[in-house]
Amino acid sequence: MPAAALPGRATASSNPGEIGLSGWGNYPKVSTELLAPRTPAGARDHLLGRSGVVARGAGRAYGDAAIGTHATISTHCLNRMRSFDAATGQLTVEAGVTIADILAAFEPRGFFLKVVPGTKFVTVGGAIAADVHGKNHHRDGGFGTIVESFRLALPSGEIVSCSRAENAALFMATLGGMGLTGMILEATLRLLPIETAWLLQDTRVAANLEAAIDHLESSASATYSVAWIDCLARGAALGRSLVYLAEHAARRDKELLGPELAPFPSPRMSRLSVPALFPGWLLNRASMRAFNELYFRRGAAQQGEPRLVHWDPYFFPLDAIADWNRIYGRRGFVQYQCVIPQARARRVLADILDRVSQRGDASFLAVLKQLGDGGGPMSFPLRGYTLTMDFPVSDTLFGFLDELDALVVDAGGRLYLAKDARQSRATFESGYPGLAALRDIRQQTGATTRLVSHLSARLGI
Amino acid sequence: MTGTKSILVIGGSSDIGHATALRYAKEGWRVALAARDIEAAQRNADDVRTRSGVETTVQSLDVLQTAQLAGFVAGLSVLPDTVVCVVGELGDQLRAQADPELATTIMRTNFEAPSLLLELFAQRFEARGSGTIVGVSSVAGDRGRASNYYYGAAKAGFSQFLSGLRNRLTLAGKVRVITVKPGFVRTRMTAHMKLPAPLTVDPDRVAEDIYLADVTRPRDVIYVARRFRLVMTIICALPEAIFKRMRI
């Protein structure tokens, strides 16, 4: 596979066999040897003789998590599905199969994934390694909860089966373990039966952050909930948001609200239903304020009346825009995602939003979600609220983000490693008490010196 | 209706073979994969069955064992509606120049074996009165070049074989022959090469075009990507006196 055909933006490097590789944020860009084994067995062989190596899925981690200090093993070609049992919903796939692949094959047959992140273009291996969460984490937990088992290649070349019953400690440390326990080759997931491709969406308007958190809290029984914050609103309107609540629509709901709609419309149909507004706010900064106003009013107009929304725009609005990460230009961007424990969330998030709005260079929309307890010792979620924003990389950015980090640390929160490109060791260590468990496992499997990503080297994992 | 149809892919362990099987399976065709590397073919078959839910089988076949081809065809439990042959090996041109054995293997793999095998299918299809034969050749067969002339010459032979077979079967009745000429495809075979992006396609695209030419909009000879037809027309039109001095 030529390097240019692999996910991630690769550029030529002066060292032969090495290329410059970055995550989805295009920052940082570092040199690594990129390997693309054709089979799971080939991936294991690459692991055997190497140090400073880590696996890489679709390259959707934002920072330096999926770049090995010496070599990076792409799961691009480990994209085969292995087996499916319709009676139990159990699906076994290789690590490079994406959530989009799974939905394309199984949504028409009435199955969905109970946990999906904000983009469907991540691989199953990456989703496990980052223990990604969805809009239902507060109720249903993270991606790890739908994983029955996986096969993990250790640096020794040994391939071990891991589940809650077998090699349980290794299984748990791999959830959110950022690929540092071994290379996931294959995984068995449990799919969720659905009656239609539609979601029953209910929109709530929140005048400020306080109200947004109230809405999320009072609607904790809703399966899916997320708040989109208008980052341009200030003062009393700071944190003004639209809160989207949703449930999978049963056949009955669809008949009631959209008798003319197909229960499982073809992909072409669903693409058309993606709101055409998104490119506007992304591509034209000048019209931003007007857009947010429109976006907000449009949402407000929908308040109180449940409507049917296809799963694609509900779960994956940004997927409609290919390569949206490029709008931040050559220097790239950082996606800042923190979680603040429940008790301190209101005050600390208000403080963060206030500083961000005064600084004025963040993305125009931020995402606020409720999280429940984490899965593995290294999983990002903890009971509280998570806030996500994009910042273009600039000379003053990192100093500013250090200030935000101090607020997060003080509140007992942490930063999401799948997004991270720059936090300090101190911030990381205070946020992840489960680090000791991961280090123990790495010691036992000989991974400590062998499986090393730029992220793990930076944070001393 | 299409649920009862079936396709046999010769070279079922390859990327184009895998993509082609997936494309037909998506329309409900039953799929059989034949390959020498049975483990790789099984991995592809499992993928096709899991994604599409259709019945998928695997058969062991080494096309270079030409004495066994007749037995293979005679032993098929189901004669497929469409047979697609994606067997091919680029080989190492420089090594082939010094190693007659390798040169022979390249020529046999790309020309002799596929031709002998497809002739057998032609006879069975002719007797049945229906069927489609798809041969995956290459634009490399349109004009011999320094960089891959053993491969190119063999593909040229295969293209001419398919042309003649089509001529014969068209005069005789209902069996169709499709020649597929991919340009650059991102596959295992080309993994080590730097390919020009505007002229390079993924295996899915080749599969899509094969399905279109077979089922949706019948065609005899297809180039993938299509712009390659123009490129090759120009290359073929160059006078030999000029062409022989070029590095392309």
End-to-end Cα distance of chain A: 31 Å
Overall residue-averaged pLDDT value of chain A: 90
The coarse overall form of chain A would be globular
Low-pLDDT segments of chain B: none
Domain unit count of chain B:
1
Number of domains of chain A: 2
CATH architecture group name of the largest domain in chain A: 2-Layer Sandwich
- The number of distinct β-strands of chain A equals 20
How many distinct beta strands of chain B? 9
Structural class of chain A: alpha+beta
- CATH homology-level superfamily of chain B: NAD(P)-binding Rossmann-like Domain
Class inferred from helices and paired strands of chain B? alpha/beta
GO molecular function (chain B): oxidoreductase activity
Protein name (chain B): Short-subunit dehydrogenase
Family (chain B): Belongs to the short-chain dehydrogenases/reductases (SDR) family.
Keywords (chain B): Oxidoreductase
Describe the structure.
The complex is a heterodimer of chains A (461) and B (248). Chain A is α+β, with helices and mostly antiparallel strands and 461 residues long. Chain A has 2 domains: 81-194, Uridine Diphospho-n-acetylenolpyruvylglucosamine Reductase, domain 3; 199-430, Alpha-Beta Plaits. Chain A has helices spanning 40-48, 99-106, 124-129, 137-140, 168-174, 209-218, 251-257, 267-272, 278-283, 288-301, 311-315, 342-359, 397-410, 425-431, 435-445, 454-459; strands spanning 11-12, 18-21, 30-35, 53-56, 71-74, 81-85, 90-94, 111-112, 147-153, 159-163, 183-190, 192-193, 198-206, 224-230, 241-248, 307-310, 333-341, 365-371, 384-392, 414-415. In chain A, the strands form 4 sheets. In chain A, strands 16-13-15-14-18-19-17-20 form an 8-stranded antiparallel sheet. The longest helix of chain A is centred in the last third of the chain and has 18 residues, at 342-359. Chain A is globular, with a radius of gyration of 21 Å. Chain B is an alpha/beta fold. Chain B has 9 helices and 9 strands. Chain B has helices spanning 15-26, 38-52, 69-74, 93-98, 100-128, 149-172, 203-216, 227-237, 240-243, and strands at residues 6-10, 30-35, 56-60, 82-85, 132-136, 176-182, 184-185, 200-201, 221-224. A 7-stranded parallel sheet of chain B has the order 3-2-1-4-5-6-9, with helices on both faces. In chain B, helix 6 (149-172) links the parallel strand 5 (132-136) and strand 6. The A-B interface holds A 1-2, 4-5, 36, 38-39, 80-84, 91-93, 101, 105, 109 and B 40, 43-44, 46-47, 50-53, 186, 188, 190-191, 193-195, 197.
